[in-house]
Amino acid sequence: MPLATRACYWPLLIAIGIAIGAFLRVTLQQRLGLRSYAAEAPALALFATLLLTPPFWLITCHLAGPSVTPSWGNMALYIFFVSIATSTLRHALAAMPHVPLMETPPEAEPDPPGPRLLARLEPTLRAPLVRMQVRDHYVDVVTDAGSDSLLLRLADAIAETEGEPGLQVHRSHWVALRAVVALHRGRGKVVLRMRDGAVVPVSRTYLAEVEALALPEAGREEMRRAAE
Q1: For site-directed labelling of 24, which of 40, 72, 81, 137 has its Cα 20 to 30 A away?
Q2: Contact present, 64 and 1 (Cβ < 8 Å)
Q3: pLDDT single digits (tens) 170-205
C-alpha cells in the first residue's frame, strides 16, 4: 500500500472505530447497565465486530486491493481482539488510584504589621495596642480600633506583644507605654489613665517599674474631669 494511501487508510479506520466504539460503550453502560469489565468487554467486542467488519473490509479492499485484503473471518477476529484489548486497557487505567496533580499551595496571608498578638484579632481591630485586662479565663485586648476577648493567659498574650513597648502593672493588667496619658496618686493608690479613657490600677509589685518611667502625673481634679 503506497504511503499516501496509508495516510488516508489508518486515520479513516481509527476515526470510524472511535466513533462506533464510543456509541456502543455509552449504549451498553447507560441503556443496558453493563459497566463491569466481565459484562461490558465481550458485549462491546461482539457488537463492534458486527458493525465494523463490513465497512473495514470494504475500505481495505478499495484502498489496498483484493489481493491483500484479509478474509471476512480474519477481519472480524482482528476487530474482536483489538476491542477486547482496548476495553482491558481502559478498565485497568480506570481502576488505578487517582493521583492528584501537585497544586501550588495558596500563598499565606502576610502577618499584620506589629505584634504577633494582632494576628489573633479581627482584621478591623488590628491597630496599635492600648492595654490588656484579664477577665475570668479571657484577656480583653484593647486597641485604638476597639476591643476583643481572647481565650489565653495574660502571660502568653504579653509574650506576643514583642515590638510594642509595654509593661505589666498589675497581675491582671498590661499597658502599652505610648498609650499611657498620665499617672495619678491618691489615697495610697496609684493608677494610670489610658488613651482610651480607662483607669488602670498599679499594684505595689510593679510600682517601682512604673515610677522609673517618670510618667507625667495628673492631679485629682484632672482625673475627675477625665473620668467624666
Answers
A1: 72
A2: yes
A3: 999 999 999 999 999 988 899 999 999 999 999 999
